[in-house]
Amino acid sequence: RQGHVVPECAARFTLGMAKLCRGNPVDAERELRDAFDLARDRGEWALVARARLSIARVHLTRGEPSGALGEVGKARDLAQRLEDSLLEVESMISLARLHMFLGQVKRAGLLLEQAQERVAEKGIALPGPNISMLQASVILARAGRGEEADLDKAAALFDVAEREGHSSTRRGLRAEIDCARAALFLQRGDAASARERAESALEIAKVTG
To answer: 177: exposed, middle or buried (C-beta count within 10 Å: 0-12, 13-18, 19+)?
Structure first.
């Protein structure tokens, strides 16, 4: 088992998130806690941080933002100590999502700006679509109905996210973008297009499980 810590943790992460998506946070947390314990016992600190980020999602599903903030904050601190730029960016994105959940849109926007600067500085590609999509969501949260300039900015960011996440392995991201675009169309009063995007997200969700 000593030589299989990384794949075992990855498997537990996947099982945990699958159970969470199926509405079973108790079993999900059990898998993720096992991954956390295994990684900590073997000194795999990057995996410890990733486990914390996953456990934070369980807290958020339960409506426990304080618990989620604690886990993400510790993950970010660990990422900074490890000088792991990718993990640090993922932690900032998670924090931004949490602040959006709490209605703290300005704070979420600042975190996303910091994450984007880090991505550009280090040439990190993977989280880019998530950042673009969240930035668009921040703009939508700030914009009132009919503020076309802001809505156009959000639409442009969704275009960027779609281009960056076009790979067929990222269907879940495309579903999220379709949902977000549905919200954009609703703000523009275009119910037909909103329904079309929502139905597209639903079809992708059925395919990906």
So the answer is: buried
Element (H, E) at 137: helix 128-142
In 3D space, the residue among 175, 178, 173 whose CA is nearest the CA of residue 196 turns out to be 178
Tokens of 55: 């456990």
pTM over 0.85? The answer is no
* pLDDT tens figures, 107-148: 988 998 888 888 888 877 665 667 787 888 888 877 655 577
> Using CA atoms, how far apart are residues 139 and 144, in angstroms rounded to an integer?
10
Backbone angles phi and psi of 167, in degrees to 5? -55, 140
Residue whose pair of structure tokens reads 């999900």 in the numeric block: 28
Phi, psi of 207 (to 5 degrees): -70, -40
Report how far residue 209's alpha carbon sits from residue 203's, in angstroms, rounded to the nearest whole number: 10
Q: How far is CA 68 from the centre of its chain?
A: 13
Of 15, 87, 66, 9, which is closest to residue 43 (Cα–Cα)? 9
Q: Contact at 8 Å (CB) between 23 and 12? A: no
Helix, strand, or coil here: 44? coil
Give residue 17's identity as a one-letter amino acid code: M
